Amino acid sequence: xxxxxxIPKKAGRLLFVLLLLFxxxxxxxxxxxxxxxLTAVSGQVxxxxxxxxxxxxxxxxxxxxxxxxxxxxxxSGSGGNNFSGSGGNGTVQLSSKPGEQSTTFAVKFKCKxxxxxxxxxxxxVITVKGEEVDVLKGEDNSGEGAGDGSEDxxxxxxxxxxxxxxxxxxxxxxxxxxADFDAERMNIQGIDSNVLKHKWLDLYVIRxxxxxxxxxxxxVYNPDTGNVIPFVEMKSGSDDVIFIEPDAKAHIPVRYxxxxxxWGAKYTLPAYKHVIIDGIDEIFDDTNRYLIYGxxxxxxxxxxxxxxxxxxxxxxxxxxxxxxxxxIEELETNVxxxxxxxxxxxxxxxxxxxxxxxxxxxxTILIVVLMNVVxxxxxxxxxxxxxxxxxxxxxxxxxxxxxAAYVTGSLEEDETDFNEPDFEKTEEAxxxxxxxxxxxxMEDDE
Length: 446
What we know:
Residues about 1-10, about 15-25 and about 140-155 have low confidence and may be disordered. By secondary structure, the protein is an alpha+beta fold. Strand 22 and strand 23 (about 280-285) form a beta hairpin. The chain has helices at about 10-20, 320-385, 395-400, 440-445; strands spanning about 30-35, 35-40, 45-55, 60-65, 70-80, 85-90, 90-95, 100-110, 115-130, 130-135, 140, 160-165, 170-175, 180-190, 190-200, 205-210, 215-220, 230, 235, 240-245, 255-265, 265-280, 280-285, 290-295, 300-305, 310-315, 405, 435. It has 4 helices and 28 strands. It folds into 4 domains: about 1-140, Immunoglobulin-like, CATH 2.60.40.680; about 230-315, no CATH class; about 315-385; about 405-445, no CATH class. It starts with 8 loop residues before the first helix and ends with a helix. About 20% of the residues lie in helices and about 40% in strands. The chain is elongated, with a radius of gyration of 56 Å.
């Protein structure tokens, strides 16, 4: 079933009556109408439309919706010129530059369960002739520290406490009323301001508007640090948990590092993410779980494990986790010791092998040198030995070519009295014919 919201109808009727009575020219106030209730059917897609109107052409239009993330899941948005849209975790941001007096935004959700669920228009701001106008309040928000139009706005003039959140300036406004909270006055940044104090918890909540009025939300204020974080309340079992800034003395579990957890399309929450130590590097685990500090209805502060994908919250058992980490550290210590011992043995083996290789190389060199010495000595001794007779061919040739020698002497007196030829005996010496000359015959011939 769809309900149509037209804001504000009574103001339009009153202006119309004034126009008839006084005949003056009066423009209709900007307005927005659209679906504030949707009938969800599990597994199906449901659509919602929102139309923004103005009496003059709008230079830009920004629309913010909130929905129950346990029932709906944002899928897509559309509408207008230069459209942009994003959503998730219960919030949708839509914007366009229509250049006309009206523009329509369409949003699609996927249903998780069968039920009727509400979609709230939390903000609608348009820009006309360079001035920003809050359509829900019908007021100009272009001035810094603009009021929210409530009757009990704090009397601080233009002086308001301010914070810079995600590069946008937010100003403190009257927080209105909240269940289990009482209104109080507190000095914030030297300015007497309105805050909400929890009835039995040490918890303060303030309401901030962005500089253009498009973001209007409650924040948890920490008087000790002066910081603010988005006000988020979730169920964890039977506990109602409100996220708070971690205490300065809060124990941070080992192997968790600080991160900024994106909360919807607008803000971030301080959180911690588990890391895996790889040597000296810290690597985030592949889960989408975070640690967030919170306080329950009994005033107990503790770490809670938030599953971003499922949107669930459960108490973090630090004792069990620390025991598990101690066991892991013990294993890592043993592994590190075994690794160190293995490295020592490897270095020792490499050292011994290096020495052995050195010895082997030296012995090899000595053996080669000795072998060379033996070979050289052998060759030198071989050269010193006499040449065998069968190999002395040159000497034989010289001997065969030698001229015949003459034997002189008196055979009569002493047949042995003669001189043998002066040459080296060889195997062929027997074949040489000696010519014997008889000296007596030579004398007779004379």
